[in-house]
Amino acid sequence: QVQLVESGGGLVQPGGSLRLSCAASISISSINAMYWYRQAPGKQREWVASVFSGVSSNYANSVKGRFTISRDNAKNTLYLQMNSLKPEDTAVYYCNAFHHGTNYWGQGTQVTVDP
After folding, report:
1. 95 by DSSP, 3-state: which?
2. CA 56 – CA 64 distance, rounded (Å)
3. Cβ contacts of residue 50 below 8 Å, gap of 6+?
4. Phi and psi at residue 86, in whole multiples of 5°?
5. pLDDT in tens, 60-112
6. In angstroms, rounded to a whole number, what is the distance separating the alpha carbons of residues 51 and 71?
7. How far apart are the C-alpha atoms of 111 and 113, rounded to whole Å?
């Protein structure tokens, strides 16, 4: 069983920054890939970014160049640095990990970008 707990969301003005964190209950060094997803009101959950144990990462086109995903295996924590935020980034952000055949999700953290 893996527990994922997100934090760091909030209200920010357009152009602002936030850093999301996702603390895992196990050593994430044993998890190859970890992900951030988001779900805006009335829309389906969408993939945002991925990071792998080899430190490579991938991003959705909508956030490329503005968001940075990273992981700190020593702290068992996944991060999402979000810069140049836009109103369309408003959503609940979830971290995700697939471990030993089971897909795990956190409870989500709300990000609102509004003047």
Report:
1. strand
2. 14
3. 33, 34, 35, 36, 57, 58, 69
4. -120, 155
5. 999 999 999 999 999 999 999 999 999 999 999 999 999 998 999 999 999 99
6. 7
7. 7
- Residue for token digits 């503005």? 66
| Distance in angstroms (rounded) separating the CA atoms of residues 29 and 33 | 10
Sorted by sequence, the CB contacts under 8 Å of residue 19 that are 6+ apart come out as 8, 79, 80, 81, 82
pLDDT in tens, 21-41: 999 999 999 898 999 999 999
**CA-CA distance, 2 to 76, in Å (whole number)?**
11
Residue 94 has φ and ψ, to the nearest 5°, of -125, 140
52, two tokens: 């792998």
